[in-house]
Amino acid sequence: MATPGARTAQHYRRSVLPYYRRFGSRWGYAMLLGRTRHFGWYEPGQSPWGFAASMRRMEAMTARQLALPAGSRVLDAGCGVGDVARTVAAEGGLRVTGLDGIASDVAIARRRTARATGHAARATRFVVGDYHALPFADGSFDGLYTMESFVHAADPRQALSEFFRVVRPGGRLVMFEYSRTPSAELAPRADSVVSDICELAAMPAMLPHGHLERLVGEAGFAVESVTDITARVLPMLHAFSLLGRVPYAVARSVGRGDLLVNAMSGVELYRHQETWRYNICTAARP
Ligand SMILES: C[S@@+](CC[C@H](N)C(=O)[O-])C[C@H]1O[C@@H](n2cnc3c(N)ncnc32)[C@H](O)[C@@H]1O
Questions:
Q1: What's the rounded mean pLDDT across residues 131-145?
Q2: Pocket lining for ligand 1, CB < 6 angstroms
Q3: Could you give the C-alpha distances from 58 to 41, 54, 102, 113, 117, in angstroms and in order?
Q4: Is the pLDDT of residue 28 over 80?
Q5: How far does the centroid of ligand 1 lie from the alpha carbon of residue 253, in Å?
Q6: pLDDT at residue 33, rounded to an integer
Q7: What CATH topology corresponds to 4-284?
Q8: Distances from the Cα of 183 to the Cαs of 194, 201, 276, in angstroms?
Q9: What angle do CA 3, 9, 15 make, to 5 degrees?
């Protein structure tokens, strides 16, 4: 039987990596979001098309939710190309270590930091790794955040126990993650859409509403708040649904809607808004 470590590594290799290596995924993120891969934050009336500005607002919100004094050490678990880490470092005067399983993205993160100026250039560093088995000593960080990366966890309890281990007592946890509506509360078509998207986008930990905060508490953290910010990210999803409509319709007409997961997600999740939420969960290690 596979050990837990082998199982999480296998899930990453067989599901998460192939999802991010797909042409549609790479092309979409590169063309639309400069390889950063998270939703933007929109106040009412802001244009859905200002993707870069909206993502920087979301990243600044991460720093605010961490609410740590300047100089604090923070881990970004699932950092991608590091734009979140650089904004968080700059906004909060924090020292951010980014960790991701995609070596080529970590290389991009390091190059972008090498070209950056100011505090972010000095205060961000990046390592390749798996957040189920963090290569850091106990209590190494004053805070830890995830930005749409925990949904990929093959073993959410193991990942959270690692987060708990590396955050010092009194340190903070902030998670920007999606949750799904329980199957029993959805029409069959809506339920199968969200299940298919979780499967195709390798998101076994897009958990039913309320489960993430329960697991965070069971890992030993004291949950402080859970805020539903779905309305703040919806304009970007609307834009994606408009951009994805034609390619997804063409792919579906030949029975291969699954080939364009990102277009499918944009169209179907905007159409079936009852199936998901976007939450910020904040907690502290007692
Ligand atoms: C949606 S992307 C978000 C990337 C980044 N946080 C951002 O906002 O641009 C999710 C990221 O989580 C990373 N990830 C998923 N599972 C991981 C794991 N077990 N260990 C480390 N990184 C992981 C993926 O490689 C991917 O880069």
A1: 98
A2: 12, 16, 20, 36-38, 78-80, 84, 99-102, 105, 130-132, 147-149, 152
A3: 5, 6, 22, 19, 21
A4: no
A5: 32
A6: 85
A7: Rossmann fold (3.40.50)
A8: 9, 18, 11
A9: 125
Q: Give the model confidence (pLDDT) of 55-80 as tens digits.
A: 999 999 999 999 999 999 999 999 99
- Contacts of residue 38, defined as CB under 8 A and 6 or more positions apart, other chains included, come to 55, 58, 80, 84, 147, 148, 176
3-state SS, residue 44: coil
Domain ranges for the chain = 4-284
**Greatest mean pLDDT range, 6-20, 21-35, 262-276:** 262-276
Q: Are 100 and 79 in contact (CB under 8 A)?
A: yes
> How far apart are the CA of 187 and the centre of ligand 1, in A?
30
Position in ligand 1 atom list of the atom nearest CA 159? 19
Ligand 1 centroid – CA 159 distance (Å):
13
Tell me the pLDDT band of 4, cut-offs 50, 70 and 90. low
Collapse the DSSP code of 190 into the 3-class scheme (helix H, G, I; strand E, B; otherwise coil) and give the result: helix
- Taking the centre of ligand 1 as the mean of its atom positions, its distance from the CA of residue 44, in whole angstroms, is 28
Q: What is the pLDDT of residue 22?
A: 82
CA of 145 to the centre of ligand 1 (A): 11
d(CA 116, CA 156): 34
Cα angle value 251/253/257 (rounded, 5°): 35
Q: Probe ligand 1: pick from 19, 57, 149, 162, max atoms within 8 Å of CB?
A: 149
What is the arithmetic mean of pLDDT over 205-219?
Answer: 98
Give 146 or 262, the one with higher predicted confidence. Answer: 146
Output the pLDDT for position 255: 86
- Smallest CA separation from ligand 1 atom 3, residue: 37
